[in-house]
Amino acid sequence: MSQSERLVLATRYRLVSEIGQGANGTVWRGHDDLLDRAVAIKELRLPADLGEEERVVFYRRCLREARAPAQLRTPSIVEVYDVVIEQGRPWIVMELIEAPNLEQLIEREGPLPPERVAYIGRQLLDALAVAHRSGIVHRDLKPSNVLLDGDRVVLTDFGLAFSSGATSLTKSGHFMGSPAYVAPEVAAGERATPQADLWSLGATLYAALEGHPPFERGNVMATLSALANEDPPPAQNAGPLAPVLNGLLQKNPLRRLSHARAVDRLERAMSPRRAARRQATPRYRLAVVVGLVAATLASCGVGVGALIVGMVRESPGQAVADDGRDATARPVTAPPAAATNPLVIRAVGDTCRIFVAEAGSLNLEFRGMMARGEERVFDKPRLSAVIYDSAACEVWVNGRKQPMGAPGTRKDYLVQK
Q: SMART domains from the xrefs (predicted)?
């Protein structure tokens, strides 16, 4: 029996057997003699070559690893019971979860089916929501930090977690986190935000679907180079999760899916009925190019422009709205702004994504996702716009709702101004 196995911490936590080892220490199966329950005990060992200042940083980080989840109450985050200083180093006492982590499951079973990955992602979003509401950013979400205990999905290892009320412990010139799962802006030296955790979630779900993260290369520098300079390769096994991955793995954090939109897309992917309907029914990507050209009609003396609509077929069938209904079944009610503005775009679903700029220039009018019920009014003489989902958006020209045109065709509209 080793010296550690003979230890009883704080006169109550008895080490029973070793569960596993990592770079910074060992995890033990233990027993709380006072409360007569099994516990997990994380023994944190300091690297031998650390200087005094680095030892202080290490100890503070260990305490933060304990404090962050201790503030959070949810089944999706590991529960911390106690922190003990014994033999000059910290030991973290937490609930014992005897279950594989996601990395081990991927290694054992290979890529997981989309419906299972969607469920895992949904539970992790709950964990992140609790953490982010408390001002805590995990900063190291990856498959090895996700435990799978039956239907329970548990986020662990808050050693790199950042709290909005805490002092940063990252030293200049030191890269923190896992390169294959870190958000591009964090790898570039920017401060981690909740959006960075959402990127890491996307990379984790990608790894679960494909068997490897999107930017993993042979070494750290090659991985970081790919992260900075390449687009994520399309996931071949994503199925209904493709919109989730595409939204989470946006390099620009401002364009990344929000927590609420990620929840919505994952829940849709988890629904067998909706997933089956989406596979069996038509999907189209709608491209709308709008040009409001200040021209003069000699015959009537009004300005006229052209609204050019093109639809690209993505799968056969009939367009379906965001909530699974036929888009043509929605009640038609003109937005109030349509009476006084030549062009109004209204979101009737959760995926109304548009890009609008002045025609022939880089002057951006609007880019992003419109929330359901939101309206955007455009009245400049020359505009170019792109709308990606006909089921989620409505286009109103001169107070009239415009048909989107037949699949694979372009349709012109006159716009008076």
A: S_TKc
